[in-house]
Amino acid sequence: MNWNASKFWVDGGCLGNQAYGKRKAYGSISDGAAVMRVQFADARTSNEAEYMVLSALLDNLLRNRIDPTKTEDEHLYGFQTGRRSVDRGLEG
């Protein structure tokens, strides 16, 4: 995965029914060239899985980026935290 890519795609979902103990929550992160798949034991809905995969992306970006000034990290952080003031120059 190229953590210095300028764009990423994320998706998450939840298959099965928790009542029967067969729920499977999953997510994926892509930089356009590679796909990283993740599973979540504690997500109960597709919305929770979507949020968890976005959170995993943000965590990886913060830990693995070589030059965080050349990307939209601040926009993603602002979107997640509601701090819209950090996404200057980016549509949101």
Q: Can you characterise this structure?
A:
- β2 (24-30) and β3 (35-40) form a beta hairpin.
- This protein is of the alpha+beta class.
- The protein has one domain.
- The longest helix has 19 residues, at 46-64.
- Residues 84-92 have low confidence and may be disordered.
- Helices cover 30% and strands 22% of the residues.
E-strand count: 3
Shape, principal axes of CA atoms = elongated
Tally the structural domains. 1
Strand proportion:
15-25%
Helix % is: 25-40%
Distance between the termini: 25 Å
Task: Give the strand order of the largest sheet, numbering strands 1, 2, ... along the chain.
Answer: 1-2-3
Q: Let me know the average pLDDT.
A: 76
- Rg (C-alpha, Å): 15 Å
Broad structural category: alpha+beta
Please report the number of helical segments: 2
Largest sheet: 3 strands, antiparallel
> Which residues form runs of ≥5 with pLDDT under 50?
84-92
The sequence of SSEs as H and E is EEEHH
Provide a short characterization of the protein structure:
This protein is an alpha+beta fold.
Which keywords apply here?
92 residues; alpha+beta; 3-stranded antiparallel β-sheet; 2 helices; elongated; disordered C terminus
